[in-house]
C-alpha cells in the first residue's frame, strides 16, 4: 500500500508540474551531453597519444643544396657524410638511446609526401629532386630527444634535428583546451540543473504542504513524506541522462563512425564501445545529483 501511494503521488506530481519537469529533463540532457562529450574527447586524446607517441620519430635532416646552415657550407650532404652519420646513429655511443634507424631518400620522401597530400592542391607541388633526405630515428625513450640534437648539432652534413613530439604536443595541447572548455560548460550546466531541480522540488512541496501536514499528523515518517518529491527529481533527471546517452550514441554512430572515420581512416576514433562506458556514468551522475539536490532542498525548506 505504501509503495502504491508513493507511485501515485509521484505520477500526480509529474502531471501537475509538466513544464518544470520538462525543463529539468532538458537542462539535465544538455549538461550531461557536455559531460559525455568532454569524457569522449579526453578518451580520444589519450588514445591518440598512446598511438602516435609509440610511432613518433626524431628526424635527422641532411643538408640540401643551398642551405644557409653552417654545417651545410659544403653543399648537399655527400655519401661519405651520410655513411658517417649512419655509423654514428648505429654506434656504441648512441646504442642505449636508439631503437631503430631508417634512411629516407628523396624518392621515398617524395612518395610519402604525395600520399599524405593526395587529392589536395599540394600533391605534386614539389619535385622529387627538391625533397630532403633524412634519417628517421626511433628512440628507446622518446623524451631523450635532446641527446640526438646535441650529438649532431655540429656534424657536417646535418642541417637540423626535429623532434616530432613537439608538433604532437601542440596538437594535443589544443585538444586538451577544448576538453577543458567542454568540462567548464558542463559544470555550469550541471549547476543550472541542480538549481532547477531544487526549485522544482520546492514548488512541488509548497503546492502540497497541506497534504504533507496531514500525513505528518497521522504519523508518517519524514522518509515516507519526502520520498515522492525525491523520486520526482530523480525520474526527471534520469530521463535527461538517458536522452543524453542516446544522443551521444547517435552522434558517434552517424558522425564519427559513419562520416569522420571514412575521411580519417588512419585514426582510431572513439566508437559505440566508448559511449557504452560513458553512458552508465552519465545516468548515475544525473540520478545522484537529482537525489542529493532534492534531499538538501527538502531538509532546508520543507516544514511539516
Into how many domains do the coordinates divide? 2
Total strands: 4
Number of helices in the DSSP assignment: 9
Structural class: alpha+beta
Rg, Å, rounded: 31 Å
Summarize model confidence as the mean pLDDT.
Answer: 80
What do you see in this structure?
It comes from Brevibacterium samyangense. The protein is α+β, with helices and mostly antiparallel strands and 304 residues long. The protein has two domains: 2-52 and 169-301, no CATH class; 55-164, 2-Layer Sandwich (Alpha-Beta Plaits). Helices cover 67% and strands 8% of the residues. A four-stranded antiparallel β-sheet has the order 2-3-1-4. The protein is elongated, with a radius of gyration of 31 Å.
Main traits of this protein?
alpha+beta, 4-stranded antiparallel β-sheet
List the helices and strands and how they pair.
Blueprint: H1 2-16, H2 18-53, E1 58-62, H3 79-89, E2 98-104, H4 106-116, E3 134-139, H5 145-151, E4 158-163, H6 164-207, H7 209-217, H8 222-263, H9 272-301
Helix pairs in contact: 1-8, 2-6, 2-8, 2-9, 6-8, 6-9, 8-9
Quick synopsis:
The protein is α+β, with helices and mostly antiparallel strands. The protein is built from nine helices and four strands, in the order ααβαβαβαβαααα. It comes from Brevibacterium samyangense.
